[in-house]
Every structure is written in structure tokens, then in C-alpha cells.
Amino acid sequence: MKQHMTDSLKSNAEKVGLRININKSKVQRIGDCNNNNITPINIDGCILEEVQKFQYLGSYQTSDGNIDVDIKSRIGKGAAVFKQLQPVWSSKSFTTKTKLRLFSSIVLSTTTYAGDTWKSTTKSSQQLNVFQQRCLRN
Fold this sequence. Notes:
Blueprint: H1 2-15, E1 26-27, E2 42-43, E3 46-47, E4 49-50, E5 53-56, E6 59-62, H2 68-84, H3 86-90, H4 96-111, H5 122-137
Parallel strand pairs: 1-4
Antiparallel strand pairs: 2-3, 5-6
């Protein structure tokens, strides 16, 4: 069935002048990862690489739906933005209110980008709260 969908995608893409780049294409199976009777997906006889996780539009997707990798990545990106703004945080020219608005609009939005797709868990909420509190203490 999955091979049929891939073949259909390929034929419809060719109708409008598009082609699938076999070197850049990957396969990720969601949910049936433990099934040993999995047939590999191929295009023109070339088997596509199967991956457990990949990054798409800045967010990590995993085959088991685990969001820990994505949260760690987003916290790392938020920390990098926070560090780049260090001159602002240490400046006496900005009020605390302005610094908090900058923190909220730049750092927190970078950290929680695509967060509406995450399944909410106690662990993920705690990780995000720890990051936010650590930044605010600085």
C-alpha cells in the first residue's frame, strides 16, 4: 500500500514536470516501527533510506512521536538567541519592562516555535519552565 502511494506521488509529480530526488528523499514510518515484515519503499528501483528522526522546518520529527529531541533542540536555539542578546540584558539603557518584552517576543517565541504540535507532558513543561527561569534569573 505504501509503495503504491509513493508510485502515485511520483507519477502525478511527473505530470506537472516535477521529479523526486532519490538522494534527498527519506522514509519515516510512524507507529509500525516494530513490524519485521516491512517492505522497503523504492523509486525507480532505488531503495529510499529509512530514518527514525529528521529535521523539517526547524523541528525534529521522530517515528515514535517522542518530543524530547525537539524540545532539547528548541531550548538550545532559544539559549543561543538569549546569549546573542547578552549586551541588551547587561545594558543599563533598557528598562526591565523592555527587557522582559524582548525576552518574551524573541527568546520565548524561538524556544516554543512549533510547540503547538508537541504533546504536552509534565517532563516537557518542566524543561521549558527550567529554561525560562534560568534565563530570567540572568
